[in-house]
Amino acid sequence: MELGTRHGMILALGAVGLLTLGLQGCAMGTESPVQTANEQASSMSEAQNDVTFPEPGDAWMEEGTYVNIENLRKMQVGLSKDQLYDLLGRPHFSEGLFGVREWNYIFQLPTSNGGYMTCQYQVQFDADMLAESMHWRESSCAALLELQESEPTRMTLSADTLFDFDSAQLSHEGQQRVADLAGRIRDDFVEPSVMVVGHTDRLGSDAYNQALSERRAATVRSALVSSGIAPMTMQSRGVGERQPVKHCDGDRGTPGLKACLQPNRRVDIEVSGEKR
Predict the structure, then answer these.
(1) 3-state secondary structure 20-71
(2) Annotated region Disordered: where (predicted)?
(3) Mapping DSSP to helix (H, G, I), strand (E, B) and coil, where does residue 12 land?
């Protein structure tokens, strides 16, 4: 079930709206213009020489997490620890949450060839415990945050709107939402290529959540086909609970925790191709 108890550290990332397009940029200063990831890498190069990173083997989560790229793009100077925790989750080394001046992470970042790169990321805090600077162990990791011209348009639908609880069958409202989305895809793209990705929250077993995310993605794909999107242009997959966008404390599946985790229960539709 999605509503259950599961042992493990809580990893989560920022909020996703009911229906969103595109991705946001990232600012490295509160008063300076928004910088691209490549500009960030350049501006950090000198400071990087003075930054010491812990060894990956010392992390309590040595394999790292599949971080939400959109949340990394939101990182900026002046964020509080609570805000940072909401975006990136708990730091991956046993350095404490309160009173410490740096947090370290290990992230698996997607590359342009479809693989992933393991990257270490550090946030340093000032005396007021506000983010003062951000650093990558490898400058090439910062470049992976740069928006690519070929990056697909991403649309998100809430699974709570699409499906009844613990179900992969579209509700009446869900059918209408998917039909509306299909209309947008037909109107905005000449020959779209569509990937449907199902997500769950972290409540329940890994295996169950993976299977549920796959069934829900396949259901949405079928509904898009019924709404006029060519089946040969679409694929679907599920990633279970591995790519959360919202952090919530607690292990017990209470109604409050379930409501907090709602943004993680979603279906992402990634559309590539020439726009009209």
Answers:
(1) CCCCCCECCCCCCCCECHHHHHHHHHHHHCCCCCCCHHHCCCCCCECCCHHH
(2) 235-255
(3) coil
Cα(254)–Cα(179) distance, integer angstroms? 33
Cα distances (angstroms) measured from residue 253 to each of 126, 160, 248? 36, 16, 11
162 and 127 in a common domain: no
Residue type, 72: L
**pLDDT of the residue at 34:** 40
pTM above 0.90, yes or no: no
* CATH number reported for the structural domain that contains residue 238 in this entry: 3.30.1330.60
Question: Comparing C-alpha atoms, which of 167, 181, 84 is closest to residue 123?
Answer: 84
The continuous run of DSSP H or E covering 259 comes out as helix 255-260
The pLDDT confidence band at residue 63, using thresholds 50, 70 and 90, is confident
Is the pLDDT confidence value at 17 over 70?
no
Gap between the Cα atoms of 39 and 44, Å rounded: 9
Which of 79, 109, 143 marks a domain boundary?
143
Query: Do the Cβ atoms of 234 and 221 come closer than 8 Å?
Result: yes
Range of the domain at 222: 153-272
Comparing 5-14, 50-59, 118-127, the range with the smallest average pLDDT is 5-14
pLDDT for the residue 135: 95
Token representation of residue 145: 């945050």
